[in-house]
Amino acid sequence: MTIRRAAAADAALLAGLHATAFDRPWSAMEIHQLLSSGASGAVIEDAGFILWRTAGDEAEILTLAVDPARRRAGLGGALVEAALSGTRGEGAASMFLEVAEDNAAAIALYAATGFEAAGRRKGYYARPGAAAVDALVLRRGA
Ligand SMILES: CC(C)(COP(=O)(O)OP(=O)(O)OC[C@H]1O[C@@H](n2cnc3c(N)ncnc32)[C@H](O)[C@@H]1OP(=O)(O)O)[C@@H](O)C(=O)NCCC(=O)NCCS
Questions:
Q1: Rounded to two decimals, what is the model's pTM?
Q2: Which among 30, 54, 79, 102 is least surrounded, fewest beta carbons within 10 Å?
Q3: For 110-123, what is each residue's pLDDT tens digit?
Q4: 77 Cβ closer than 6 Å to some ligand 1 atom
Q5: Active site residue: 110, 116, 124, 125, which one?
């Protein structure tokens, strides 16, 4: 498995991967804008990617996606570790993220990589035709 840093030129590749993992995919233009305006990323070719942003001594995971056909093989964990390593290099001391409280796979992954509960945002994720779902805010030291 090879993990490399993502560049704005990877936006179309990353949008394709994002669409395999989320009901509401981000466009290549949105991803290009993030990577052109201070966000960082790491990608495993044809399999998954992570985006994060460092501001001062805090970092935030913006998104993480692994192609469904490549899951449970350690790629998500490797991408989180790549983001932690990248954000340390950018000066962060801690990393935060938000995850829907019904996203069992992601919550298990973040628990396995050392994240702990830091808060809750009520009704953060709108769900068409269903009640909105809370976001859990998770944190770990970088
Ligand atoms: C969450 C996601 C990135 C995990 O990617 P992955 O490559 O399958 O993760 P890993 O293989 O590194 O899993 C590491 C550990 O996390 C936990 N885990 C991951 N997926 C799990 C699942 N479906 N059920 C239970 N535990 C799970 C396990 O502890 C796993 O270790 P194990 O396989 O040795 O048991 C992937 O499921 C995904 O892209 N989901 C859709 C997008 C998403 O929800 N992104 C996060 C938004 S905050």
A1: 0.97
A2: 102
A3: 999 999 999 999 99
A4: yes
A5: 110
